[in-house]
Amino acid sequence: MNQTISYYNEHAEEFCAATGNADMSFCRRKFLCFLRQGGHILDAGCGSGRDARAFLGAGYEVTAMDASFNICKEAEKLLHRNVICMSFEEMNFRREFDGIWACASLLHIPKNAMIQVLERCRMALKENGVLYASFKYGQGERITKGRLFNNYQEDSLEELMVKARFSVIEIFISKDVRADRDAEQWVNVLAGKGAD
Q: What are the angstrom distances between the C-alpha of 73 and each of 23, 60, 64, 149?
């Protein structure tokens, strides 16, 4: 993880510029269907702040966090508000959020730490809260340009969520929305915490 965070610290401006306009509205709409209007969202691994800004604009309360200090600074420029510099492993929220939006962020957690991180996500959610997460479609772990990626397919992602005591609402495949990445696929999950 330290290597991955170092990558984002070194390439923060470039990364945010490349992803800041990616159109994730389709996934955001699916996610928001399960949240009360004005609910509290944790944008966990917020990157450029793109989605946090969209949620704020739609009238939701948003807490944004990212593990990269320099990414946080870039997101703060867009959001004009504080972004918490924190890793998933450091999260210690308790029943604070109606939803957690983890768009292309949990994919950097090593597979052997995923259950513990998802347990932290469960603890952070209010009763009947909802988690959205996305991963590159595939199998296993890999290091690419200094970043760790752990990949999933539909069956392995469902198995992971069930092990972490989430109730799977939907798993769906999407194409990468960036113009130069349209051959890449993502696997997305919406999962509920259920009653405490």
A: 22, 22, 11, 23
Q: What is the pLDDT of residue 181?
A: 65
Two tokens at 71? 């990414």
Using only C-alpha atoms, the chain has a radius of gyration, in whole angstroms, of: 15
pTM above 0.85, yes or no: yes
Residue pair 157/134 in contact by the 8 Å Cβ criterion: no
- List Cα–Cα distances, 138 to 93, 117, 151, 158, in angstroms: 31, 20, 5, 14
CB atoms within 10 A of CB 26: 12
Return the closest-CA partner of residue 49 out of 26, 28, 71, 24: 71
- The tokens describing 88, both together, are 């998933």
Residue 178 has pLDDT above 80, yes or no: no
The residues pairing with 137 across neighbouring beta strands, listed in sequence order, are 152
| pLDDT tens readout for residues 78-105 | 999 999 999 999 999 999 999 999 999 9
Average pLDDT score over residue span 28-51: 97
d(CA 72, CA 144): 22
Q: What is the mean pLDDT of the chain?
A: 94
Structure tokens at 183: 């051959």
For residue 44, the 8-state DSSP code is: E
Q: For 181, phi and psi rounded to 5 degrees? A: -125, 20
